[in-house]
Design goal:
21 strands; alpha+beta; D-Amino Acid Oxidase, Chain A, domain 2; 2 domains; 8-stranded mixed β-sheet; FAD/NAD(P)-binding domain; binds flavin-adenine dinucleotide
Length: 390
């Protein structure tokens, strides 16, 4: 048996685990991160890559803006840019009700200091002539960005490693015990890790860890289907999202259009599967053509999804365990954890090393699930009718 000793053990090598390892190692902590597969291969590596600031849960803006500031200096932090580009994000409305919705999103963003452009049909046609003439209005945030999810988590993990963190891959944490103030983590490869603190960043698998300490959360595993088209000349700079939630897309400079089609589909974390039913490709392409008719005839060349944890109030769990001093949870990112990933890692490092963080995280306590939480309309619309994965 191999025994490792750490100040902080991290379960899960997704973006959250990797950034936590980075910020802790930067402050001279001995960190061991344990990943059941390979770093960045789950949700963190399969996502759409959007770093959207508009339209977020209002209580998340301080965290989200702090995180965006970290994205904006990613190259200085980890030595790699990972295709981070501040391309901006355009929210589109097709009727008066949708227009009210994007204006309400914009008002919240503006109250947190974000600059939003409010665009009518004439200006929209001038800047993006290929947009459907049925779009009645839009809001644009130039600070929103994208990055390549396939590159980011491994790059953050490499940076954490160069600061002294240990990364153990292909090794699953099966059991955790606490005696006094020390944790012992057992794994399926015989490695045992002793640590003073534990971060549960196990993504859609995190509830099994929390339950070992007598707490839980109603996590639902699912993912939005993703598609990439054949390349064609670069035309579309920002990320574009129909506010009815039917489609979001962006074009990368290599020419391919990446799109995500909604509603999401259920995933199977036990089997490690996130299937995309064939009909989803057709409905996503229809939704794309409605926004950008010029893309109607392009061909999809690859389809995938990922396994993400969703909670009924559509906000994550971030913060200390309610039962176990020294244990911290960060999971259930409900489809928006890529953007807040760096900020979450930084806040976790502050909670462990400074006893707290200045970033308000109260809404994200795991303790909220002691009573039934209010189910968000977004969750009901997609998840109430969701079929199990086939
Ligand atoms: C298809 C898709 C598109 C998305 N698009 C966006 C987007 O555009 N913008 C955005 O902000 N967010 C997006 N998201 C959400 C975002 O990807 C996630 O919120 C984020 O990556 C979550 O990171 P994580 O580290 O918590 O989880 P994960 O990346 O899932 O990492 C958790 C890790 O824990 C490991 N693990 C689990 N159990 C154990 C164990 N017992 N022992 C050891 N290791 C374990 C897993 O193998 C996994 O690698 C999208 C998600 C999906 C699925």
């Amino acid at each position: 048996m191999t025994r490792l000793s750490a100040d902080v053990a991290i379960i899960g090598g997704g973006l959250i685990g990797a950034w936590s390892a980075y910020f802790l190692a930067k402050r001279n902590q001995r960190v061991v991160l344990i990943e059941k597969g390979v770093v960045g291969a789950q949700s963190s590596g399969t996502n759409f890559g959007n770093l959207r600031l508009q339209g977020r849960f209002p209580g998340q803006y301080p965290l989200s803006l702090r995180s965006q500031a970290l994205w904006e200096e990613i190259e200085e932090l980890i030595g790699e840019r990972c295709e981070f580009e501040q391309t901006g994000h355009l929210y589109l409305a097709f009727d008066g009700t949708e227009h009210e919705k994007i204006e309400a999103y914009a008002a919240v963003s503006e109250s947190h200091g974000l600059a939003i452009e409010h665009l009518g049909p004439t200006e929209l046609r001038r800047r993006w002539p290929w947009l459907s003439h049925r779009v009645v209005g839009a809001t644009f945030s130039a600070r929103d960005a994208t990055a390549n999810p396939r590159l980011v988590t491994p790059a953050v993990a490499r940076a954490a490693k160069s600061l002294g963190a240990t990364m153990v891959e292909n090794c699953r944490v099966t059991e955790i015990r606490q005696a006094g103030s020390a944790f012992t983590l057992r794994t399926d490869t015989g490695i045992e890790v002793g640590a003073g603190y534990v971060i549960n960043a196990a993504g859609a698998w995190a509830v099994a860890i929390a339950e070992q300490f007598g707490e839980s959360a109603p996590l639902f595993p699912a993912g939005p289907p993703q598609f990439v088209t054949e390349p064609f000349p670069y035309l579309i700079e920002p990320s574009i999202q129909a506010v009815d939630g039917s489609v979001i897309f962006r074009q990368i400079p290599r020419g391919n259009v990446i799109l995500a089609g909604y509603p999401r589909t259920a995933a199977d974390p036990a089997a490690n599967r996130a299937p995309v039913p064939p009909g989803k490709t057709l409905s996503a392409m229809r939704a794309l053509a409605r926004v950008a008719p010029t893309l109607a005839s392009c061909h999809v060349i690859r389809v995938w999804s990922g396994i993400e944890g969703y909670l009924p109030d559509m906000i994550p769990v971030i913060g200390p365990s309610g039962t176990t001093p020294g244990l911290f949870h960060a999971f259930g990112f409900c489809g928006h954890g890529f953007q807040i990933g760096p900020g979450v890692g930084l806040c976790l490092s502050e909670m462990i090393l400074d006893g707290g963080t200045a970033t308000p995280l109260d809404p994200f306590s795991i303790g909220r699930f002691a009573q039934p939480v209010e189910v968000s309309a977004k969750f009901s619309a997609e998840f109430d009718t969701m079929e199990p994965p086939r």
